[in-house]
Amino acid sequence: MAINYLYPDYEVIRNQQRCINCRVCERQCANEVHRYDEELKMMVSDESKCVNCHRCVALCPTRALKIVKTDNTFKENANWTGEAITDVYRQAGTGGVLLASMGTPKNYPVYWDRMLINASQVTNPSIDPLREPMETTTFLGQKSAKIRRNPDGSINTKTTPQLKLSVPVMFSAMSYGSISYNAHKSLALAAQKLGIFYNTGEGGLHEDFYQYGPNTIVQVASGRFGVHPGYLKAGAAIEIKMGQGAKPGIGGHLPGAKIVGDVSKTRMIPQGTDAISPAPHHDIYSIEDLRQLVFMLKEATNYEKPVIVKIAAVHNVSAIASGVARSGADIIAIDGFRGGTGAAPARTRDNVGIPIELALACVDRRLREEGIRNNVSIVIGGSIRNSADIVKAIALGADAVYVATSALIALGCHLCRTCHLGKCNWGIATQRPDLVKRLNPEVGSERLVNLINAWNHEIKEMMGGMGINSIEALRGNRLMLRGIGLTEKELQILGILHAGE
Amino acid sequence: MKHIDVHGMYFKDLNQIIRLSKDQHIELKDVEGQRYIGCGLSGKVIDIYGTPGNALGACLDGTQIIVHNNAQDATGDTMNDGAIIIHGSCGDAAGYSMRGGKIFIRDSAGYRTGIHMKAYQEKQPLLVIGDRAGSFLGEYQAGGTIIVLGLHQDGKPPVGYFCGTGMHGGKIFLRCDNLPRDLPEQVVAQTAMEEDLKEISAPIEEFCKAFSLDKDAVMQQHFFVLTPNTSNPYKQLYTYV
Fold this sequence. Notes:
heterodimer; A: alpha/beta; 2 domains; 8-stranded parallel beta sheet; 3-stranded mixed beta sheet; 21 strands; 16% strand; B: Pectate Lyase C-like; 3 helices
């Protein structure tokens, strides 16, 4: 009979000379890796429970701890890697679907890292953003293609509803339930301070957070959890979630065990019942049906809020986006396959969808070719890691970006990718009160504000370097990009030249 | 009371007039498929003559809508409160994701009626169909009550295929002698006992009153009650990487 033994992935290395038996690591670890052995009079650890979240490492006062990847190995095999073998063991032992969290860790090409940004020399002077005005304010919504005039000849400035962002960045959807109250509060506070927006995800809006409504995007997903007229009116915009980059084509399932207390109240379903978001919206089987929901939400909110339609980046994303742009939606959000999630089947996360860089380039081109690019703004997400990614995204045609993983990292996430266990030691992806209180929303929001402000400075710096003083002039400006180490086909899809051309 | 002759009026204009109207009672004549009538509206009574379009009373928030004819698709989508009373039949997906209020359909309803209905505390949605519902009735149902009376079905199951698939909360009452043959294993069907019948007595009385039916005659027939099978729930087995 097969013995189902999985050797732990990590080793907890404790420098016993430094350890003072203060037991901080023991108290901090929700996975119960560390304990004090009364007989040995020393701390011992069970590395089989370790998820490598670095909570103990970060809080050890004497730096006595480190976590290292185990060097225990199967016989080397480029095809049957240790991971491939242990996945089979896991499934043979349980019959279960492999579940994972956060964005795919697989080694797929990151096109951001294969594009280089231009700068001015001699002929077009560069600009110093510290001393000269530099505009990063962005408006999201439908843009009129022509100037309309009133009977007296003055310009009609009435537009369809727009979102005004001080920086072309928003925090993307994470539901209350998948992340904690304090994590949501941090995002809401930061969005308010920054003049940008955060997104409720599909779990409804906690009553305490209605006050941040002007900086909130409320989401409507297939499960329609917590959706009622008051909720729709509370936000600055409404997002219809059709898909998610980390798990295109499948729905969501928050198990009954996590539907407790305020999460139950916010989702408006009884405690302990499963929250199932079906894979499709059952009233949407066509672009015409999508249009029906878009206008239903506009009717319910008196045409005062822009409607966002969020789709996952999949093979025929440009045709889908073309349909969405004709549905009456104001903004399309496209989520790339490297985007994060609180839980997704690992095979879907690691194998379904396409990179956001290619999706963005082909959607922007398709909408321009069809003459409908002004019908919608494009917001992209799915692993935006820094300000250079944002500059490249805007040069490829995006109006703004959505970030979530970077925001969580700013709040303390160490990307251990075990959100689905609900025992987040950093107080983010958990509902356990003792863990949630580890995240201070005031401090958390300050760190988010710092991050976005720092990125804004960098964006301005790079724009100034290109001799561009308005983000509008960077949008879709592919001449500012060059590929490095890309094939002819990749360059053609991205619509950019190779470095040196 | 405000009268509006609707005819070919654009839905946006019609709904704006309704929204801004100070009259509590509004009567719409010659409605020709205008969508979203009463969407998100609270505190009004709307009488509709002619045929309302899709998403009638979507997100409804306390208004009462009486349709003196048939209605189309997505009636009462994501409805929160109020009542929709249809003197006729309606199309697909009536009461999709409704979380409160009631929908009475005198005759029949299309596919996917009452799917993903949910309930929470005092919000207990109710959907009653006089005759028959199409396939996927109560799919993904998470709460609330659906009653199908089969008034012209002579005891045959008054539903199409896949009734209650994915159901994990709430109740479905079917007035018939035999069960649909393809009920999923995750749904338990039992003959409605006195306790169950007591539960639907008031809703059925209200339904019968709305359409001038004889309640006693309706209640005399056999009812089944369908609930989620708690010992055999939908369950995905997971293992963690």
